[in-house]
User: Fold this.
Amino acid sequence: MDATAREAFDREPYCSLATFRRNGRAVETPVWFAHDDGPFYVFSEGDAGKVKRLRVGSRVRVAPCTLRGRVTGEWVEGTGRIVEDPAEIERAYAALHRKYGWQMKLADFGSRLSGRYARRKVLAFELETPQSG
Assistant:
């Protein structure tokens, strides 16, 4: 994805992240996302469906969307993975904190309070450059 498209996409507060079941059916989830001049990052409950689906296959597609998941832009294909490297996880959280500020701090606080913080997974996805027709 070129820098202009990346910047336009990154201005959006939410994206719909579609991961794919074994039968090829897409499952779309609205998520917060951020990047650190590399892949886009998302955090999720460790046993969430999107995490399980990424363990099976790396295909993803994303589109800007509303809080409720209504897609407001074009879908872009990409590849996703579960981040395992502690340094990259730290970079991902730093990028999310830069973008979402107090909202991310509040999400972290709630996750820590409920004991879910340690079970989180960070997902990374790289987007392809959209093909013009």
Helices lie at 3-10, 49-56, 86-100, 102-114. The chain has four helices and seven strands. The chain has one domain: 3-127.
